[in-house]
Amino acid sequence: MSAIQWWCAARPEPWSWQWQPFPGVWLVVATIATVLALVQRTGPLPTWRRVLSWAAVLGIWATLDWPAGPLGAGYLAAVHAGQFLMLAMIVPLPLLLGVPDAAWARLEAARTRGALAPRAAAAVTRPAVAALLLAGVMVLTHLPPVTDTLMATPRGAFTIDMSWLLSGLCFAWPLVVPVPARPSFTTLPRIAYLFAGTVAHVFIGMWFLVAEYPLYATYELAPPFPTLTPRADQQVAGAVMLLIGTPLVIAAVSVLFFKQMGRDAGE
């Protein structure tokens, strides 16, 4: 085994199921867990929200650490696609649900006093900004020159992974965080927001499926992985984007729609 990497990045050697340590991943996950634990001490929180938030932390860990981390970084585009969905579209919402309302109230009070960090958070989580941010990050990080350049080094791979997670958190914020108040951000705008921010994944998935040749040198030139050719791996990546990402969006839209129907029936 080669020298220890602090973050998962592409490697030239054949894949081995021998465990590898990634200290940077552990540090990031430990930081997220510590912040979440401290925040959850600020006020009461329903058990289901607490459980979901800690499941999200475990999801981040499983996505970034061995074996998924190195597999997605330099061997299988299909695993890389799954990592994107997990970090950008799955774990952000339950992670934010793990923050008690009391903590959000404190953040809003700090924003009204003019504190810089809460004001910046409010700015980047405005629906129009957050949708553009996620869509932009999604497209940019799936461009072959960007992926091939960044996945070659731990610093570059870290940049991609964190851009997915942070843009996903910004996108989920207007959907579940009660501050700042957005009275005009009702059901129909929320549905349009969900589609606008995530529709790019459909085109990326279709691109993976129909491309005649492998798109990424990182995965085309990677040491061969048993049972999958580079093109077949890319097609599986496209299927992952479409068959997992699309139902996630449809499920979220359905929840919003039926909630609105329930409210209308109660009036």
Structure summarized in a few sentences:
By secondary structure, this protein is mainly α. It has 14 helices and no strands. It has helices at 23-39, 47-64, 68-74, 77-90, 92-97, 101-112, 116-124, 127-141, 144-150, 154-176, 187-198, 200-210, 217-220, 230-266.
List the helices and strands and how they pair.
Blueprint: H1 23-39, H2 47-64, H3 68-74, H4 77-90, H5 92-97, H6 101-112, H7 116-124, H8 127-141, H9 144-150, H10 154-176, H11 187-198, H12 200-210, H13 217-220, H14 230-266
Amount of beta strand: under 5%
Structural class call reads mainly alpha
Instruction: Specify the helix fraction band.
Output: over 70%
Count the DSSP helices: 14
Rg (C-alpha, Å): 20 Å
Q: In this structure, how is the largest beta sheet organized?
A: none
